[in-house]
């Protein structure tokens, strides 16, 4: 293999699995170290820079970082990254003077943002401090988009939402509530330099089967129903409730039902558990509240008596799976009727643009999804951008935030009349973490503690009030252990080949056998003859230049490295060094500063 | 040394026949200098014992004084061990071996401990053919007293301050060959592919097995001008034979029984496969071994590998007709036969 090009910013970025997996590339180990030092405000600000809503995401993020976490490969459970984000948000001091401020003068450029969800709010957060005049149009009477209408208060308290949205509105953003945009054509004709569409995926899917019309009064579309609950238009539901679908919206529906008076809630899944779309922790939370999840039930018809819903008939399914877990055969083994008072449909949602005229040059694909560039987020009309669920269909808040960051860069470039695609590259900045003999700027010892279990409000108390936040946040002891569980993957192992004397000290001390000095070869073959076989092909091999005494190469398998620094402590010549790697992710202010510097 | 001991992560590790991972054969944290060859020898010992499925409680580690002698604490933390008087490791090993021939005796020594203060002990352990693995971690200097030349320092090698040694070195392998040892090997801490099978073979050899391991002192003898540095050893390193050790319970595959190899059956049924590298060298020929080592001194090559092996010698136990059962396993009546038996014994000299 050729020596690894560690000058490529993505090489060391990939080693930080959590940061690489995060759509917004939040520097997770960095803020966890700040929490460990008690610097909660700093930790919050590091978060806010990349993900804008640490308090919100610390509660309801979909956590793509956690399945990626190296700790989950070394032992069973990853670091509770999301929980720690909330720790930073809960324990911080006042930050209103630290967040980007309303500028003294605007630059006269007008940006329209449609929908006050996380995508538009992120665009405003990035552009308003630079002087852009941002106007957000929101159809509802409160900002937040799906964060307020679809996520129940028992998971995300309104105060948290209001505070973090407030920081952005205070930057001089004009928020027009109860202002539904009815015509894109009119928007284009208005005097805006750019338009950003972050109107979400507001249309819940319906289930058109027998009895649908007759039972309509007791059949609810999940996301609409959640919105009505959030805005207090609905305050009760029947005793027996069936939820159709088993995604995260279904979990919010079943738990909300329990708080509105239901005492027998069943979630009906068409397929076996391994096909569920809901996050494992959301399933767990629902089952913890005695929600029953029934698998292999496919909806057949709504059963009515005297024009009123009394139950639902399901086909009982059986599936054959192959070794990879794919369904190879489906059988119907009979039917069953399950009595119920209400049914909530949570079987997916779509983006819908009835307000965008189809003759204005804005193109859609055959599924009615707008054609949007995946780098610039620009539509087929220059100056019109999409982000969040409205761009590529339902994803998560953290994706909407990243879309917002990227769209903000594009909007700035559009206004500056520069090439949208010529964006600042990512960078990496390495500096030695050495403080003295065997002393590092991070705690390198391995914490054996297990992942903390979130303390929850007692069941009876939480079901009595839908606004009581169920998760209480980590205790001081749990925080102490959890921060130490982070392996500091951003403190990189960096090798300097000419210094190596091939004494094997690093190889002998490595607790996970990830180092080898071997004859070079092709990657596939090299992976088999390292000290421990490098079986995880998703993780890179770090290959050095030939060593001076034998011409062999140092190879590091990045898979299980604990970043404990023992190789560097044992190295007599400091050929191995632990270096703090800052991954530079450019935002629009970086782009603006670069232009200013030129 | 490191600031902390190695974290125990063993989820990914294979297990041997005793259901132990290689980590179960480690000892406490090394306090030697970072980069010391001895730590690498320790790692090779750990690897070799794990591969041999050696129950840790069946081994006894014995050492004298010196950097090398500290290392018995760093492997097989669950075996027997004693760190005894400077240069007296062979005496203690002899005593232990006499009363319990069932244990595997592992002596760890250095060039000071074996070739100066303990030279006489070293020679007599060989003469008695004590059944033990004797690892001599050889770095040419006294590391614990800050780098004076030891008895194994080559003529012309330079100290850290640039002074050349003018005294003749003692070569432990030549000494062992002339004293009649049945297993003599030389290795390098920087090449575990050679060292690990030699340790396994040495431990399975019935009788005295010497492995002289060049194990650089990274602090006092790893500079330009030293003949025991990493760079010098890599440059002149020359294995004469490649050794594969096949334990008796392993199947002999084509890979290990290729043509041209010399096969030596060990006492316990294990097999040594010795492959010549480029020389016409036969490790069963003692005279050739001595000649090669003495010539090697002039060419500058460091000749390594299993230099001599003879499996047909009686060890101390056999030669002295010592009891097969360890004394600690004998019944009380046999161990202390009583007044009458004593009187009968004394009667023989009346």
Automatic annotation (TrEMBL), chain A:
Q: What is this protein called?
A: NADPH-dependent glutamate synthase beta chain
Q: Which InterPro entries did the record assign?
A: 4Fe4S_Fe-S-bd (IPR017896), 4Fe4S_Fe_S_CS (IPR017900), DPD_II (IPR028261), FAD/NAD-bd_sf (IPR036188), FAD/NAD-binding_dom (IPR023753), Helical_ferredxn (IPR009051)
4Fe-4S ferredoxin-type domain residues are 491-520, 551-581
Pfam families cross-referenced by the UniProt entry? Fer4_20, Fer4_7, Pyr_redox_2
Taxonomic lineage: Bacteria, Pseudomonadati, Pseudomonadota, Alphaproteobacteria, Maricaulales
GO molecular function annotations of the record: iron-sulfur cluster binding; metal ion binding; oxidoreductase activity
Which keywords label this protein?
Iron, Iron-sulfur, Metal-binding
Q: Which domain of life is it from?
A: Bacteria
Q: Record keywords: Acyltransferase included?
A: no
UniProtKB/TrEMBL annotation, chain B:
- Its signal peptide is none
Domain of life the protein comes from: Bacteria
Alphabetized UniProt keyword annotations: Oxidoreductase
Q: Which residues form the Thiamine pyrophosphate enzyme TPP-binding domain?
A: 65-213
What SUPFAM superfamilies has UniProt attached to this entry?
Thiamin diphosphate-binding fold (THDP-binding)
Entries under Pfam families matching the protein: TPP_enzyme_C (PF02775)
What is one process in the GO biological process aspect for this record? Answer: cellular respiration
Name any one GO molecular function.
Answer: oxidoreductase activity, acting on the aldehyde or oxo group of donors, iron-sulfur protein as acceptor
Oxidoreductase found in the keyword field: yes
Task: Please give the InterPro entries that the UniProt record associates with this protein.
Answer: 2-oxoacid:Fd_oxidoreductase (IPR051457), THDP-binding (IPR029061), TPP_enzyme_TPP-bd (IPR011766)
Q: What PANTHER family does the entry give?
A: 2-OXOGLUTARATE OXIDOREDUCTASE SUBUNIT KORB-RELATED, BLR6744 PROTEIN
Name of this chain's protein: 2-oxoglutarate ferredoxin oxidoreductase subunit beta
Q: Which organism is it from?
A: Maricaulis salignorans
């Amino acid at each position: 293999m050729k020596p690894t090009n560690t000058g490529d910013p993505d090489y060391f970025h990939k080693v930080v699995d959590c940061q690489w997996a995060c759509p917004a590339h939040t520097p997770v180990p960095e803020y966890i170290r700040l929490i460990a030092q008690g610097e909660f405000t700093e930790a919050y600000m590091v978060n806010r820079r990349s993900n804008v809503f640490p308090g919100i995401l610390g509660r309801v993020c979909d956590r793509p970082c956690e399945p990626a976490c190296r700790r989950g490969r070394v032992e069973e459970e990853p670091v509770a990254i999301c929980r720690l984000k909330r720790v930073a948000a809960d324990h911080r001091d006042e930050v209103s003077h630290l967040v980007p401020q309303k500028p003294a003068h605007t630059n006269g450029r007008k940006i329209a943002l449609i929908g006050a969800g996380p995508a538009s709010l992120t665009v405003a957060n990035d552009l308003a401090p630079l002087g852009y005049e941002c106007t957000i149009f929101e159809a509802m009477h409160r900002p937040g988009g799906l964060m307020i209408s679809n996520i129940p208060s028992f998971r995300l308290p309104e105060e948290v939402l209001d505070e973090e949205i407030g920081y952005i509105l205070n930057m001089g953003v004009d928020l027009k509530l109860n202002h539904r945009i009815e015509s894109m054509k009119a928007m284009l004709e208005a005097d805006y330099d750019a338009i950003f569409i972050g109107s979400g995926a507001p249309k819940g899917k319906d289930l058109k089967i027998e009895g649908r019309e007759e039972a309509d009064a007791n059949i609810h579309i999940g996301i609409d129903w959640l919105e009505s609950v959030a805005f207090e238009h609905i305050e009760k539901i029947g005793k027996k409730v069936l939820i159709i679908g088993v995604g995260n919206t279904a979990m919010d529906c079943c738990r909300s039902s329990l708080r509105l008076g239901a005492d027998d809630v069943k979630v009906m899944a068409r397929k076996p558990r391994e096909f569920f779309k809901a996050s494992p922790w959301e399933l767990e939370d629902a089952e913890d509240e005695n929600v029953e999840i029934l698998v292999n039930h496919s909806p057949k018809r709504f059963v009515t008596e005297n024009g009123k819903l009394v139950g639902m008939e399901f086909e009982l399914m059986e599936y054959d799976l192959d070794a990879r877990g794919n369904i190879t055969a489906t059988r119907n083994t009979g039917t069953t009727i399950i009595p119920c008072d209400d049914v909530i449909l949570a079987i997916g949602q779509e983006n819908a643009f009835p307000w965008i005229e189809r003759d204005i040059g804005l193109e859609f694909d055959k599924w009615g999804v707008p054609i949007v560039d995946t780098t610039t987020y620009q539509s087929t009309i220059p100056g019109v951008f999409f982000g969040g669920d409205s761009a590529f269909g339902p994803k998560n808040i953290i994706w909407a935030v990243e879309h917002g960051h990227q769209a903000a860069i594009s909007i700035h470039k559009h206004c500056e009349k520069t090439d949208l695609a010529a964006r600042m590259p990512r960078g990496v900045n390495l500096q030695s973490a050495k403080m003295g003999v065997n002393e590092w700027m991070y705690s390198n010892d391995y914490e054996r503690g297990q992942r903390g279990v979130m303390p929850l409000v007692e069941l009876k108390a939480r079901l009595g009030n839908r606004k009581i936040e169920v998760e209480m946040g980590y205790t001081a002891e749990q925080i102490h252990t959890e921060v130490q569980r982070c392996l500091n993957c951003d403190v990189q192992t960096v090798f300097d080949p000419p210094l190596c004397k091939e004494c094997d000290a690093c190889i002998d001390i490595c607790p996970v056998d990830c180092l080898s000095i071997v004859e070079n070869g092709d990657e596939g073959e090299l992976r088999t003859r390292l000290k421990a076989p490098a079986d995880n092909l998703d993780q890179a091999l770090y290959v050095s230049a030939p060593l001076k005494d034998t011409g062999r190469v140092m190879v590091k398998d990045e898979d299980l490295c604990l970043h404990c620094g023992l190789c560097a402590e044992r190295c007599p010549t400091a050929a191995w060094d632990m270096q703090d790697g800052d991954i530079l992710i450019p935002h629009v202010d970086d782009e603006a500063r670069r232009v200013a510097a030129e | 040394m490191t600031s902390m001991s190695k974290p125990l992560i063993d989820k990914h590790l294979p297990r041997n026949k005793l259901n132990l991972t290689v980590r179960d054969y480690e000892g406490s944290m090394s306090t030697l200098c970072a980069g010391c060859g001895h730590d690498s020898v320790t790692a090779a010992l750990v690897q070799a014992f794990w591969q041999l499925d050696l129950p840790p409680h069946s081994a006894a580690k014995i050492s004298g004084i010196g950097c090398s002698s500290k290392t018995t604490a760093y492997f097989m933390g669950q075996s027997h061990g004693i760190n005894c008087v400077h240069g007296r490791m062979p005496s203690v090993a002899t005593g232990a071996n006499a009363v319990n021939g069932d244990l595997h005796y592992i002596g760890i020594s250095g060039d000071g401990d074996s070739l100066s203060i303990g030279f006489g002990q070293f020679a007599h352990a060989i003469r008695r053919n004590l059944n033990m693995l004797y690892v001599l971690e050889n770095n040419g200097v006294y590391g614990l007293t800050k780098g004076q030349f030891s008895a194994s320092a080559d003529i012309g090698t330079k100290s850290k301050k640039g002074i050349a040694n003018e005294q003749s070195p003692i070569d432990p392998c030549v000494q062992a060959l002339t004293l009649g040892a049945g297993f003599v090997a030389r290795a390098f801490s920087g090449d575990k592919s050679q060292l690990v099978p030699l340790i396994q073979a040495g431990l399975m050899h019935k009788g005295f097995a010497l492995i002289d391991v060049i194990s650089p002192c990274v602090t006092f003898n790893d500079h330009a001008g030293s003949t025991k540095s990493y760079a010098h050893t890599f440059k002149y390193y020359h294995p004469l034979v490649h050794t594969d050790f096949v334990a008796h319970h392993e199947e002999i595959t084509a890979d290990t029984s290729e043509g041209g190899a010399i096969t030596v059956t060990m006492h316990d049924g294990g097999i040594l496969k010795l492959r010549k590298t480029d020389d016409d060298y036969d490790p069963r020929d003692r005279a050739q071994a001595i000649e090669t080592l003495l010539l090697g001194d002039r060419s500058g090559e460091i000749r390594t590998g299993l230099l001599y092996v003879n499996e047909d010698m009686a060890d101390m136990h056999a030669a002295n007709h010592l009891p097969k059962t360890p004394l600690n396993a004998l019944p009380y009546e046999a161990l202390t036969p009583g007044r009458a038996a004593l009187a009968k014994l004394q009667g023989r000299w009346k």
